Amino acid sequence: MAVKTSFKKKSSSKPDHPRGTRPSLHNAQLQVSTGVPSLDSLLGGGLNLGSLLLVEEDSYEHYSRLLLKYFLAEGIMCGHSFVLSSASEVPENIINDLPAAIFDNQGSSTMPTLTEHGEEEIIEGGDKDANDEMKIAWQYKKLPKVQSSFSNQFGHSFDLTKKMERSRLDAVNQTFLNLMDCKTKGTEMYQSLTEVIIQSLSDGKFAGQTYTQRQQRTVLRVVIHSLGSPLWLQDASTNSSDLPRLLHSLRGILRETNSVALITIPTHLFQDLTYVRRLERLCDSVIQLESFEGSEKEQNPIYKEYHGLFHLIKLPRINSLTCHYPETLDLAFKLKRKRFLIEKLHLPPELSETANRSQEDTVQPAKVTKGTRTKTSKDHITISK
Known about the structure:
Blueprint lengths: L20 E3 L6 E3 L4 H6 L4 E2 L3 E5 L5 H16 L3 E6 L4 H5 L3 E3 L56 E6 L2 H5 L3 E5 L7 H16 L18 E6 L16 H14 L3 E7 L7 H9 L3 E7 L16 E8 L15 E5 L4 E5 L37 E2 L2
Parallel strand pairs: 4-10, 4-11, 5-8, 5-9, 9-10, 12-15
Antiparallel strand pairs: 1-2, 2-3, 6-7, 11-12, 12-13, 13-14
């Protein structure tokens, strides 16, 4: 005869996290993907909920706009709501031009296999022979291999040659704020933007810890395109306090909710660098895109494999004393036919095929005093509080 006891096996309950989020390995805070795996890896796994990411635009706004599309496309694939505001372009046109996600034969999203140099591995004509390896000099065989790309299995992978289906766009809650035809001043435009964001966050499903169990929690993605540009009726030569006030209030609004924001600002239009540094301190994470297009670096053989430099200006430190620090700050980005990549900057094996390296062209080594280090203006990174 079996004896009944009050013992019950403890079962591990799955945490009720919003879709498209995962806990950080550094501070256990929920994170969302930016849509670019290499950028997620550099930021410590993704963007923390309640944080603000500032993207300093490149000169022609080609690549910063691409990051904005990746961010929106990832949110739509996860079923996240979003608020999109722009004064230079109709927001609906940006949504209609989002890249499509890549799926495998079973219908699940897949991440393409990358080679050592960040290329997509494509095998044609049957299986690849394992013995068919590149032959290198014997003295280099024992050296460790350098991984140029950053891998992060989080989020989806997208194909820039295809557009996202209309059915997926209509399945999420969308809020647009078109400021192209707005005749008000910059202060009133910023106030209208803040009111729209607060109204969108008033829904209980975006609440943090204080939420009702009946409601399914989700994430709100706030995207502001080219904030502070002349199209926002703001003179870039003047240090207006309206823009810092907006960033300060937006950072406080996001902190207590399941939301995340991505803002692009054309900082190259501002003449006062002190004002730019003030804007950077008001954000949790700051990245800068330096495009080679139209500059002398475009013809430099050192950068022939890249389209620009990627600068990490500020890394987040939310609810933690420390933060994730990448292996190197020498980063560059390239745009391929189907995807956008951020890699470690490496010099090519040879600078030019016709370069004549004579022994007379010697370079005198720089004298370095013990205990000192030369530091450039770009060789810095700050930690947000």
